């Protein structure tokens, strides 16, 4: 036989059971909440993993493009260095040409100056020659005039003499021809 005391469960046990059931329900609710959060975290992790994969692919593509850009940049730098060397060479040639042009300009100025001096000398020589020619022509003309004047006197004497001589010669020629003809006739006979 049991006593009533033995059969009766103490109140605190019920309270403990009730408390345990409430705590278990709270715990299960909390676990479920944690499961939901964990599922959300797992979904976030999966999404993050997909984003990371995509980011890694983008990073790999960007790295390739960066490597290509670096190669292009290196090529551009080499071309720039070559262009700079060509530019420096061109500047040197331009400087050399400028020096030559300047030198040629100075030579041209000197040549023009010398040519002008020569032309001045030529002009002076021409003027002197003209004066000299005029002097000598005037002198010659005066001498010719003198000689002509004296020649005219002589010429008129000579002309008179020549006329007389011609007449004499004509008479002599006529006489000579006549004599020759007679001689020729005698020879023929």
Structural features, described:
With 189 residues, the protein is mostly helical. It has one domain. It is 96% helix and 0% strand. The chain contains two helices and no strands. The longest helix is centred in the middle third of the chain and has 178 residues, at 11-188. The radius of gyration is 73 Å and the shape is rod-shaped.
Q: C-alpha Rg, in Å?
A: 73 Å
Q: Give the % helix.
A: over 70%
On the 0 to 100 scale, the average pLDDT is: 84
* Low-pLDDT residue intervals, each spanning 5 or more residues: none
What's the main sheet like?
none
| Count of runs of 4 or more consecutive helical residues | 2
**Beta-strand segment tally:** 0
* Distance separating the two termini: 237 Å
Structure characteristics:
0% strand, rod-shaped, mainly alpha, 2 helices, 189 residues
Helix and strand topology:
Elements: H1 4-7, H2 11-188
Short description:
The protein has 189 residues and is mainly alpha-helical.
